[in-house]
Structure of General stress protein 17M-like domain-containing protein:
Amino acid sequence: MTVTISRLYDNYNDAERAVRRLEGAGVPYSDISIVANNSDSWFSTDKKVDRDRDGVDDRAEGAGKGAGIGAGVGGTAGLLAGLGLLAIPGLGPVVAAGWLAATAVGAAAGAATGGIVGALTEAGISREDADTYAEGVRRGGTLVSARVPDADRSRLDSILKESSVNLRDRSANWQKAGWKSFDPASQPYGAEEVRKERQLYGGSVR
């Protein structure tokens, strides 16, 4: 039996390390997904060139095309070699790779719950957690999800847990400020809003 485990990160670097640790633990890159907010354009095709020169294996392959995100990437390259740029309803521009982003784009066409929430709940994540994960990405965070054997769930979730957001605490903080649930029709956060959110919780990118 396969289950889905997910974690939210304020810092993209932490999410990136989590992906690499999952791959190192034997999870196929095809079973891992990453979705990171890009409202402040921290990731661009220009930065792809810089990364390639540095020899870092998390380069963009160009604009994402839904189900094509991460497609064609060799197993030795890993998930992060397939990062692409796309937009998901309610989140705005994101950097993404893997099955979850592809499912979210497809779900957006008809899912009443919205693209990213619909994709998460379809994968077995509770609606409450799916709302919080989606809102976390909307506010500047990075989501990592993996499909793993149920027998390995505890071991692999402990890998994701390191440096991740405490979902219950974060949701409670937002609710104190009036937040109720993720709304895919809401206006995505702009660059300045994302910057303030990251400063508030200590998140950053590169």
Notes: Residues 12-24 form the longest helix (13 residues). Residues 48-76, 108-113 have pLDDT under 50 and may be disordered. The beta strands are 2-9, 32-37, 60-63, 83-88, 92-98, 142-149.
